[in-house]
Amino acid sequence: MHELSIAQSVVEAVCERADGRRVRSVRMVVGALCAVVPDSMLFCFELAATGTAAEGARLDLETPAGVGHCRQCGADLALTDPILLCPCGSSDVEVRSGRELTIVSMEVS
Question: What pLDDT, on the 0 to 100 scale, is given for residue 75?
Answer without folding.
Answer: 96
